[in-house]
Amino acid sequence: MADFFDVVLGQRAYRQLKPDPVPDDVVMRILEAATHAPSEENHQPWEFIVVRDEATRQAIGRVTQEVWEAFGREYARGQLTPKFFEAVDQWATGGLAAAPVHVVICGNTERTPEEQLPSSIFPAVQNLLLAACALGLGSLMSTLSVTNRAAFSPVLGLPAHIVPLALVPLGWPERALGPARREPVEEHLHRDRWGGR
Amino acid sequence: MADFFDVVLGQRAYRQLKPDPVPDDVVMRILEAATHAPSEENHQPWEFIVVRDEATRQAIGRVTQEVWEAFGREYARGQLTPKFFEAVDQWATGGLAAAPVHVVICGNTERTPEEQLPSSIFPAVQNLLLAACALGLGSLMSTLSVTNRAAFSPVLGLPAHIVPLALVPLGWPERALGPARREPVEEHLHRDRWGGR
Description:
- The structure is a homodimer.
- By secondary structure, the first copy, chain A, is an alpha+beta fold.
- Chain A has a single domain (4-37, 45-173), classed as NADH Oxidase (3-Layer(aba) Sandwich), CATH 3.40.109.
- Chain A has six helices and five strands.
- Chain A has helices spanning 4-10, 24-34, 54-79, 82-98, 117-134, 149-156, and strands spanning 46-51, 101-108, 138-139, 162-171, 189-191.
- In chain A, strands 1-2-4-3 form a four-stranded antiparallel beta sheet, with helices on both faces.
- In chain A, helix 1 (4-10) crosses helix 5, helix 2 crosses helix 5 and helix 3 packs antiparallel against helix 4 (82-98).
- The radius of gyration of chain A is 17 Å and the shape is globular.
- Chain A starts with a helix and ends in a 6-residue tail after the last strand.
- The model of chain A has no long low-confidence stretch (mean pLDDT 96).
- Chains A and B meet through helix 1, helix 2, strand 1, helix 3 and helix 5 of A and helix 1, helix 2, strand 1, helix 3 and helix 5 of B.
- Strand 5 of chain A pairs parallel with strand 1 (46-51) of chain B, so a sheet runs across the interface.
């Protein structure tokens, strides 16, 4: 049993994962949690591709690395602390492919129009991340590879009506990490109207 | 203490809420959970407007009702079961305004580009919904009113760089409801590639 607030306040990105396999019943429990997220009119437009095949994980890694090198890396270098940049760079150029399970979360445009998919899909992704944390797995959400849909979709044989929205690698953490750093709520809080205190 | 899986599997929309006030420390605990969601490069682009003022809640209710009557109602009538339609119709035409607290979740385009806001905001909304559930509150996520940004933003005095993305009414449930109905994971699961079993 995991306390809800311990999980929600402790959930964070893990980029360094062990290659050890993740049992299928653990993955299924995580996906069941994902399907309990809300969606517009309960249309449940999510589709999950669970990738264990190594060649496919490496192909996903290559698409990610290409987007990273073409668009992400130089932008990130100026945005992130050197330590954070180094961790992301190592992840995008090899760490991701080494994670034993990739879960690709897609939206089905035959259930929900494409422009309304994000509000029906990202809550399910968050449930997935939280459930992984509750079960001791490391994970993170990445939208890097799916921004190049033309390169990404053929890797998984996704038909045209299926939109890949996020990638979540899963695995057992190399080591436990402390909680993520967040700004205090008060800095993001407004009472009754913008700027209200 | 609330068990994580009890919360995540039990979380569901509550449309009928008591008018009783919700203590501020409860709201703050829910918002703290929201701020522990991931965001792109940890930019934390969320802004929360907590509305208790009755006139403002009624103004939000009017924008919602106008969008519902102009675009949502006839579409939904053909999509939903009669009972579900009736519940949503009552909510959109009065129930929402009566909820004692409205939380409006916005994205800050000075932190994250607008097209990348959904993947950084909807996970926080889901944490908010789950934390409300863990503390016994009823809630739901609605994107109805914010689709008419031109009408919605002036109600809260939102500046141009702040994008409203979701509205979550909070309150104590009129009565407890069972878990939401969801399709089995297996119907949304693919192994290694689309259609893989």
